[in-house]
Amino acid sequence: MAEKKERFWDTGLHFSCTACGNCCQLDGGKVFLTEDEVNRAAEYLGMSIDEFIATYIRAIVEQESYVLRDGEKDCCIFLEDQKCNIYPVRPMQCRTFPFWPENVKSLYRWKIVAEDCPGIGQGRLYTAEEINDVLKNRKTVEQVSEEGLTNLYD
Predict the structure, then answer these.
(1) What are the residue ranges spanned by the domains of the chain?
(2) DSSP one-letter string for 75-124
(3) How many helices (H) and strands (E) does the chain have?
(4) Do 134 and 96 touch, CB atoms closer than 8 A?
(5) pLDDT at res. 58
(6) Residue 112, by phi and psi: left (phi above 0), alpha (psi -120 to 50) or beta?
(7) pLDDT digits (tens, 9 = 90+) for 122-142
């Protein structure tokens, strides 16, 4: 049997969202939404789906994935005064930050992300099992937190 490869986060990682909005302003970032997420966001904003798509979506990828338009200064279009205008219905991509595969690929990458995210290295310790659940999109950071200590975003 092959040995299990050690990951730098096998002993867990500390993270606590500071609501700084920096993750909504990452250079070159794209926010992808599923059809369900488009429907929830449109309903939350009191818009028709067609109106939401015309206003906020810049591309549709194979009729299954939608890409948000950029807002001012290439930030997320829903970021206003450092707050998310659709926070209760934000996409899974947003709900799982900073535990994205590309961010936990190596300690080097994690440290680069930490330069922009003041919540990394702070607060609650997420176990390797919890991080794995987020990585596999089985759970959001919020769900893991609610099951653990406290809700990150309150």
Answers:
(1) 13-147
(2) -BTTEETTEETTGGG--HHHHTTT--TTTSS-HHHHHHHHHH-TTEEEEE
(3) 6, 7
(4) yes
(5) 87
(6) alpha
(7) 999 999 999 998 888 766 666
Neighbours of 37 (CB within 10 A): 20
Task: Report CA dihedral (128, 130, 131, 135) to the nearest 10 degrees.
Answer: 130
Mean pLDDT of 21-46: 90
Distance separating alpha carbons of residues 120 and 110, to the nearest angstrom: 9
The per-residue pLDDT of the chain, averaged, comes to 86
Tell whether pTM > 0.85: no
Query: Residues of 55-83 as b/e, b for ≥16 C-beta within 10 angstroms?
Result: ebbeeeeeeeebebeebeeebbbbbeeee
d(CA 118, CA 16): 9
The answer to whether residues 153 and 19 touch, using CB atoms and an 8 Å cutoff, is: yes
**Average pLDDT for residues 112-130, to the nearest whole number?**
95
Q: Which of 46-55, 66-75, 97-106 has the lowest mean pLDDT?
A: 66-75
One-letter identity of residue 82: Q
